[in-house]
Amino acid sequence: MQTPAFHSHDHAHCTGDVLARADALMSERAARLTPVRRRVLEILLEAHRAMGAYDVLQRLAAEGFGNQPPVAYRALDFLVEQGLAHRIQRLNAFTACMHPGEAHAPAFLICRNCNAVAEAPASPVLAALEAAAGSEGFAIERASIEAVGLCPSCQAAA
Amino acid sequence: MQTPAFHSHDHAHCTGDVLARADALMSERAARLTPVRRRVLEILLEAHRAMGAYDVLQRLAAEGFGNQPPVAYRALDFLVEQGLAHRIQRLNAFTACMHPGEAHAPAFLICRNCNAVAEAPASPVLAALEAAAGSEGFAIERASIEAVGLCPSCQAAA
DNA sequence: GGTATGTATGTTATACCATAACACGTCAAG
DNA sequence: CTTGACGTGTTATGGTATAACATACATACC
């Protein structure tokens, strides 16, 4: 599977697909995809774009879950730890991972016009970064690679 | 000049050197390195690590400058625009650029133990990222590449 | 079944990060 | 000497994130 990218796609299908794989992954590990956590993942998948913690929280509260920040942050942190979601530093926001389970070093392409976020294949990027870090004697544990620019649609519009 | 890295170095020298080059750059352009801005740059250089805006503000206030957040943020934003400082998204913090003027795509190595931050040469990383983005039709304007891990000293200590 | 233990959720309170909007001062151009 | 651009100071507010504690729920073990 290539990256989901900015192009149109069968959204219901990709959402269901990811959820199913999330369930499978959580059984494999000893992790529990509780109602709040599952719902947060669904919300992220439905939105299909980066959402702030407080946006997620609002949705949760409207559905009878707790309405205090920690409720959202805990679920989001869990999803990030489990590789089911990613945090976009640049936007102080979160987005569902579109191919959970696969080992992947995420690189994000953020459109500054429409705010869409795509995951790009980042292995070569990571390799280059490892090389640069290695020559400094630095041991990388996690990396975040985020690019801001214009997605294809917004380039066309301009 | 290679990256400053995590190793010991003549700190007074690198600070003075960068300041001198900042002055030169500001004359070239039509930009003004006013007292507040210059002082903020000095503070960042002296600290030689990432500092939050409020940390900088505290220092400024103690020296008779304004003590409200915008004072710090405006100076910091100016320095970032001019390429004299960088924002570290991961830390909500700022750090002085160690080689201003030189075209450079910054990649940051952040030690999770001692919080030191080094700039690593990122051209290859950037190239790989451009390639990945290009295949999606995405046009990169700015990128932030940040790695969290352990610096050499903290690896040795562990 | 009952109970202990760990984990998840809910809630209060607070800390931290960032910017909008307006007032005042200064300096150079006209 | 006035106008306009820019920089700084200040008030107020908005957005992001977490510490700390209380409660509930699940599972495993007796």
Automatic annotation (TrEMBL), chains A, B:
Main location: cytoplasm
Database matches in Gene3D superfamilies: 3.30.1490.190, Winged helix-like DNA-binding domain superfamily/Winged helix DNA-binding domain
Keywords: Cytoplasm, DNA-binding, Iron, Metal-binding, Repressor, Transcription, Transcription regulation, Zinc
Any one Pfam family match given in the protein's UniProt record, by short name: FUR
Location of the protein in the cell: Cytoplasm
Keyword Metal-binding included in the entry's annotation: yes
Superkingdom, natural source: Bacteria
Family: Belongs to the Fur family.
Subunit and interaction comment: Homodimer.
Protein name: Ferric uptake regulation protein
Organism: Gemmobacter denitrificans
Gene of this entry: fur
